[in-house]
Amino acid sequence: MAYRITPNLMFPVGNFKNISSGFGEMNVYDKQLWGKHLGIDISAPAETKVFSIGRGTVVYSKLHPGEFSEDGETIIKRNWGGITIIAHKDPKTKKVFYSVYGHLGKRYVKKGDTIEMGGLIGIIGKSLSESNGAWEEEHLHFGIYDGPFHARVLPGYFKEQSDKENTTELEYWKEPVSFIKNYNPKNTQI
Ligand SMILES: [Zn+2]
């Protein structure tokens, strides 16, 4: 896979101030400890547009549906819903890193697509739908990862006991807001 140089980065949704769960928070859902959060959750209503943070190549885009009981009343499994992962390359460090967008109600890109900064990736999924992964809150999960990528979905939480593929190593996950802010020194044009 040829990686595309990514000169600049932007934020994936317009309003970036409503962070409902921060990076590294220990979260409990369904009375279970899920572990450390490997990204941030940005609250935004369903159908809010989600944009690529930078030029790159889509390396993963699939639906991992949430599951409900037959009567639709009970959540059986929470999941990613629609998830898309884009590979980028830092022109200064030559390092490849990935942006992760979870709980998308619709995905407008597929694996292998190239995309520019600000390109439309999808929209945020509706509350308690398969496509948002059966979560109550409408939000984008957004992460930045610079570890090895095995062409599989990446995790949203650090769970030590299930760390089979080395993708949840905490050192590979970056706090997304400061990562984007630090990426763009003023007047950088390539
Ligand atoms: Zn999240």
Mean pLDDT, all residues: 89
The proportion of residues forming helix, as a percent range, comes to under 10%
Identify the CATH homologous superfamily.
Glucose Permease (Domain IIA)
Described by the principal axes of the CA atoms, the overall outline is globular
Structural class: mainly beta
Any guess at the CATH architecture? Answer: Distorted Sandwich
Radius of gyration: 16 Å
Distance between the termini: 22 Å
Q: Biggest sheet, in brief?
A: 10 strands, antiparallel
How much of the polypeptide forms β-strand, as a percent range?
35-45%
CATH class: Mainly Beta
The CATH topology is Glucose Permease (Domain IIA)
Q: Compute the number of structural domains.
A: 1
Count every helix, treating DSSP H or I runs of 4 or more residues as helices. Answer: 1
Secondary structure tally: strands: 15
Structure description:
This protein is mainly beta. The protein has one domain (19-183): Glucose Permease (Domain IIA). Helices cover 4% and strands 38% of the residues. It is built from 1 helix and 15 strands; from the N terminus they run βββββββββββββββα. The protein has one helix at 176-183; strands spanning 19-21, 26-29, 32-37, 40-43, 49-51, 56-64, 67-68, 75-77, 81-89, 96-107, 114-115, 120-124, 139-145, 157-158, 173-174. Strand 7 (67-68) and strand 8 (75-77) form a beta hairpin. It is globular and about 50 Å long.
What's the quick description here?
The protein is mainly β and 190 residues long.
